[in-house]
């Protein structure tokens, strides 16, 4: 994963072309010394464009994972700690968001954000990715709040919200770390899918999904326009999932990975 980060963020510094540049003397040319990964139909440098798409996918994936996991931790912990009306309302909100067609809603709203509004896309994606984890956190909170150190804090008069942030959520750190890691790949795939259909990152910015969609039209006779973006997407997802599996095995020795 570290190598992919270096490629995405250091590679453009090493290359001779920017993702905004056009070489009007090299339309749809194969890999060469001038263009390491070839060029597109409009003369864009595939190397620079692909790395720009990687940057966006990695940034969006990481930010969505952090935001959605944080929301899941807070909502789930409050819903589990306060089992009265607070917990019920939070539970209803969670159930409502679970049944909404998230992909369609994001697809409808994201084009209206316009170019350069990818941070708003992060908010949209994160808004629909926290619910399942929130339910898991709620169940764990119900168990944790009956433990001695939490009961002692309550008897000492510590407010509930402080107990949640000081004792409940920190005791779920292993679950939340693994969940955030796995959410990175889910966010990258969702963003790439949206961009593939034209609903994600908007031009003139670049996304791997948009590059794959454009490259699919010329993949048979100009495979470099498709396979570099598609191959790096597969490598990113595989690397993130392997990290998530490794963290899960490290935090939970009784998992399948720990028994092997």
TrEMBL record:
CDD domains according to UniProt: TM_PBP2 (cd06261)
Domain ABC transmembrane type-1: 58-244
Cross-referenced Pfam families: BPD_transp_1
GO cellular component: plasma membrane
Keywords annotated in UniProt: Cell inner membrane, Cell membrane, Membrane, Transmembrane, Transmembrane helix, Transport
Membrane association type: Multi-pass membrane protein
GO biological process: transmembrane transport
Signal peptide (residue range): none
Intracellular or extracellular location(s): Cell inner membrane; Cell membrane
Annotated InterPro entries: BP-dependent_transpt_permease, MetI-like, MetI-like_sf
Transmembrane segments: 58-82, 89-110, 116-137, 224-243
Family under the similarity heading: Belongs to the binding-protein-dependent transport system permease family.
Protein name (record): ABC transporter permease
């Amino acid at each position: 994963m570290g190598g992919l980060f270096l490629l995405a963020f250091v590679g453009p510094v090493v290359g001779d072309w920017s993702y905004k540049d056009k070489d009007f003397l090299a339309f749809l040319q194969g890999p060469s010394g001038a263009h390491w990964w070839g060029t597109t139909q409009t003369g864009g440098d595939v190397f620079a464009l692909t790395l720009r798409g990687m940057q966006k996918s990695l940034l969006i994936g990481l930010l969505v994972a952090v935001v959605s996991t944080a929301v899941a931790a807070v909502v789930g912990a409050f819903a589990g700690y306060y089992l009265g009306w607070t917990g019920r309302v939070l539970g209803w909100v969670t159930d409502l968001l679970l049944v909404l067609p998230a992909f369609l809603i994001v697809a409808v709203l994201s084009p209206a954000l316009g170019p350069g509004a990818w941070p708003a896309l992060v908010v949209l994606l994160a808004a629909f990715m926290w619910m399942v984890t929130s339910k898991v956190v709620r169940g764990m909170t119900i168990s944790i709040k009956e433990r001695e150190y939490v009961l002692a804090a309550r008897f000492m008069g510590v407010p509930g919200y402080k107990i949640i942030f000081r004792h409940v959520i920190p005791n779920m750190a292993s679950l939340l770390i693994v969940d955030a890691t796995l959410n990175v790949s889910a966010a990258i795939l969702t963003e790439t899918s949206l961009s593939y259909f034209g609903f994600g990152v908007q031009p003139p910015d670049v996304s791997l999904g948009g590059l794959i969609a454009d490259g699919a039209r010329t993949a048979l006779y100009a495979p470099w326009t498709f396979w570099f973006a598609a191959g790096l997407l597969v490598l990113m997802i595989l690397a993130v999932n392997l990290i998530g599996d490794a963290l899960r095995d490290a935090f939970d020795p009784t998992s399948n990975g720990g028994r092997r």
